[in-house]
Amino acid sequence: MIEINLTIIIQVLQFLILIFILNRLLFKPISQVMTERKEKISAWEEKTQKLQESAREKLETYENQLREERAQAQERQGRLTKELKKKEEENLQTVSAEAAGLVASAQQALAEETERLRLELRHQAVELSQILAEKVLGRKVS
Question: What is the mean pLDDT of residues 83-100?
């Protein structure tokens, strides 16, 4: 049978003292470290979520700005293309007008040269006819 004596009481007291000491020296500090660790992990998770959200917002802002810049660049390119086409048409009209002027002046010069040569040929024809008449008649014709 179990005898209850002083030894059992001492052992129970030792056990309770051991639990009190372990609780003070081991269980509470470990529990506190675990709680602090959980708090740090939670804080890091919150910070990570905030950073990810911030990065997402910045990426969206960047993509929106990029879209706007592309649209503005396309608009500028369209305007420049229109301006270049307009200048090309103006230059083409200017060149066409200059070419028409050159053709007209060349035609006039050609007409003047033709008239001059026609007059010269008439003069030479008259001279040749006189020379021919003198040779045929054998005398000088005035």
Answer: 94
Distance CA 140, CA 142 (A): 6
CA distance 17 to 20: 5
Contact 141, 130 (CB under 8 A): yes
Give residues with Cβ within 8 angstroms of 134, minimum separation 6. Answer: 140, 141
How far lies 86's CA from each of 75, 82, 91, 100, in Å?
Answer: 17, 6, 9, 21
Alpha carbon separation from 5 to 11, 12, 25, 90, 91 (Å, rounded): 10, 11, 30, 123, 124
| Exposure b/e, 92-119, CB count within 10 A at least 16 = b | eeeeeeeeeeeeeeeeeeeeeeeeeeee
- List, for residues 21-46, the tens digit of each pLDDT value: 999 998 899 999 999 999 999 999 99
pTM value > 0.90: no
